[in-house]
Amino acid sequence: MLTIYSDDHRLHHGQGELNDGKFQPCFEFPARADNILAAVRDAQLGEIIAPDTFGLEPIRRVHSPQFVAFLEEAWGLWTAEGRSSDALPLNWPVRGMRQIEPDYIDGKLSYFSFDAATPITAGTWTAITSGANVALTGAKKLVDGETRAFALCRPPGHHAAADYYGGYCFFNNAAIAAQYLRDQGAKRVAILDVDYHHGNGTQSIFYDRNDILFVSIHGDPRQEYPFFLGHADETGEGTGKGFNLNLPLPWQSSADDWFSALDTGLQRISDFAPDHLVVSLGVDTFIDDPISQFRLRTPDYLEVGKRIGRLDLPTLFVMEGGYAVSDIGTNVVNVLRGSRPPF
Questions:
Q1: Do the beta carbons of residue 271 and residue 308 sit within 8 Å?
Q2: Cα 191–Cα 198–Cα 182 angle in degrees, nearest 5
Q3: Residue 159 annotated as catalytic
Q4: How many CB atoms are located within 10 Å of the residue 289 CB?
Q5: 2-55+126-338 — its CATH code?
Q6: pLDDT score of 343
Q7: In what order do the strands lie in the sheet with 276-281?
Q8: Where along the chain do its domains lie?
Q9: Three-state SS across the chain?
């Protein structure tokens, strides 16, 4: 299993987020990736390489140029106002308000974001462009003939849509990788999102497409963040009708219930017959995750990998969530180890 990783992720380290009605330390912080990397090394899964550089064009294939330009300039505009704290939004343009990008940085932050848990810091731009390069390098390795690769991206990406960020996510690394695979000649690409939280950004990016299938198993949006996408009746629109499969589950769903949903999703992917599979790999389905409500245990992640591996597809695992930091490395490695033949 080839792993792609960059130390640049450490440049994004938020001071805090709004959660449970108070400002508190971020659940998403550098030790997450550091612990995963250490576990990959300890398990001797294979070579660990640095990413290539792809520039902004593959990112703009998924994200709007206006949004990319905002993220590039946001910290400079924020500090130009004499501020040194992390940049967080003030309010949001909800129903009945105009969707016009403001000139002032506080308005821009509110226009392009959807929560107050995703701070922009001095190093965010470098970290997120590096993360996109990590995912793109993994995708390129599949094009070049690798059968499995792990893009150890941080910060995560699946909540980021074409023109907004949130949920700790800025660039949608899995979507960028999937689009790159299409641009390199793949006729069909499937994305399987096993993160506890719905990949609202990935869904919205490909919702009207029939060449990229999106399958997600996640906490029911009637109960769980991000709340406003992820219902079972969201199946795509236009030519994309039938190419979006949401499998929401209620709080405290058992491992058996989760694996039943996984089997349903894997069958849909098999029927789609993609050239490549991109897995948005979140391990916040873990029973001890501090912000999640599913009940998978560490040995279960070996089975997750095995069932995905049985599809026998060239597969790129792209790191997403998982906030039980002391266990995250073992859980991730179990998925990766399980995905390798023999199954």
A1: no
A2: 20
A3: yes
A4: 23
A5: 3.40.800.20
A6: 67
A7: 48-49, 2-4, 148-151, 315-319, 276-281, 189-193, 212-219, 244-249
A8: 2-55+126-338
A9: CEEECCHHHHHCCCCCEEECCEEECCCCCCHHHHHHHHHHHHHCCCCEECCCCCCCHHHHCCCCHHHHHHHHHHHHHHHCCCCCCCECCCCCCCCCCCCCCCCCHHHHHHHHECCCCCCECCCHHHHHHHHHHHHHHHHHHHHCCCCEEEECCCCCCCCCCCCCEECCECCCHHHHHHHHHHHCCCCCEEEEECCCCCCHHHHHHHCCCCCEEEEEEEECCCCCCCCCCCCCCCCCCHHHCCCEEEEEECCCCCHHHHHHHHHHHHHHHHHHCCCEEEEEECCCCECCCCCCCCCECCCHHHHHHHHHHCCCCCEEEEECCCCCHHHHHHHHHHHHHHCCCCC
Cβ 113 vs Cβ 90: under 8 Å: no
| Of 86, 98, 133, 103, nearest in space to 318 by CA | 133
CA distances from 295 to 219, 223, 262, 284, 288 (A): 12, 16, 14, 10, 8
Q: Which position has the token pair 């490695």?
A: 333
Determine if residue 235 is left, alpha or beta; phi over 0 gives left, psi from -120 to 50 gives alpha, anything else beta: alpha
Q: Mean pLDDT, consecutive 10-residue segments, the chain of 343 residues?
A: 98 94 95 98 98 98 98 98 96 95 97 97 98 99 98 98 98 99 98 98 98 98 98 98 98 98 98 98 98 98 98 98 98 97 75
**Given this model, what pLDDT does residue 341 score?**
83
CB count, 10 Å around CB of 144? 9
Structure tokens at 318: 């792209």
> Which of 13, 158, 159, 276 does the annotation list as catalytic?
159
